[in-house]
Amino acid sequence: MSGRVGDLSPQQQEALSRFRENLQDLLPRVPNADDYFLLRWLRAQDFDLQKSEDMLRRHMEFRKQQDLDNILSWQPPKVIRLYDSGGLCGYDYEGCPVYFNIIGSLDPKGLLLSASKQDMIQKRIKVCELLLRECELQTQKLGRKIETALMVFDMEGLGLKHLWKPAVEVYQQFFSILEANYPETLKNLIVIRAPKLFPVAFNLVKSFMSEETRRKIVILGDNWKQELTKFISPDQLPVEFGGTMTDPDGNPKCLTKISYGGEVPKSYYLCNQVRLQYEHTESVGRGSSLQLENEILFPGCVLRWQFASDGGDIGFGVFLKTKMGERQRAREMTEVLPSQRYNAHLVPEDGSLTCLKAGVCKSSGVYWNCFPCHLPSACPLFPALGRGVGTSVSSRGAGFRAMDEMSGPYMWV
Fold it and tell me: InterPro entries, per this entry (predicted)?
């Protein structure tokens, strides 16, 4: 049995019932608690109840951290809107939305010198949520369930610039997020115009894909235009890709739907624009960390951070201390903002977090190499105008959001 609605074995039906029962505390907060949604998580873990439950609970924590309920209203920085490629364009024969990823004309280094890696990843998370919404709209329009999307990767022009380590890390992290948070939503990943360098690029990201995802990859050969019409009707496919669809003005690339990227002008580069603002510099050895504490005097304060680094990326996170008057390791504290690596040597980081109760906030930067880190002389605290005001950051937007109500000392790490 496929494990889908209407095609369940007695054992699978029993697992679904038990899964729903085990998640009674969580179901009011999930985007859609129907059987289609729950079966996605069960199929992803071969109907192992404990693994499926753990996976869904981690996803709900991820939704809270990334504020996914509001991410469709988040706007990435202008440089990403103008020069990051891709777009939703058309539907396959079954009505599933199709998303085009244009790789060759992408300027990854220019983008990552002009916006943070977190912004780039956040934009791709937004695409995932956009595709889920489009599936729901198609379900309503067609009167039958649409729960998967088709992705087309146009690899023409793939070169060594696309194998730049920070750029590869964006796609590695994206596929990790896709696997952990959007199981069973990919119908097929179709690769067209793949050059000789493609196997090298694929080897860099394939370990971040599940075996099921790798089975869904279809690589088309020289007759890719003809083959692509076996998946997508010509009237739903731009002329550029072998179909008949054009923009209203006749443009064969459908530029109103698909962005083709392009070289990022150096005027957008941020690497040298913010450093003069920093009044404090710290040098920390390999494997060491720098911890800073801030007292939150009253609820609603917004903790803001700005930092840059020289020579390498760093890890950064915010934690809630559980004991006053003594130093604690990150694992001994309550995680508020998960620690992750930032390319602050390329683009200075600027973010914020709303603290809903008074206490002491502690943060820490973990240094992967020995290099100086530029920090403001004080970590500014701003009063929020109301609940929810100031929850989005100036740089990452929906990336940093208010967590559950907290009290006590906050620590940024």
Answer: CRAL-TRIO_dom, CRAL-TRIO_dom_sf, CRAL/TRIO_N_dom, CRAL/TRIO_N_dom_sf, GOLD_dom, GOLD_dom_sf, SEC14/CRAL-TRIO_domain
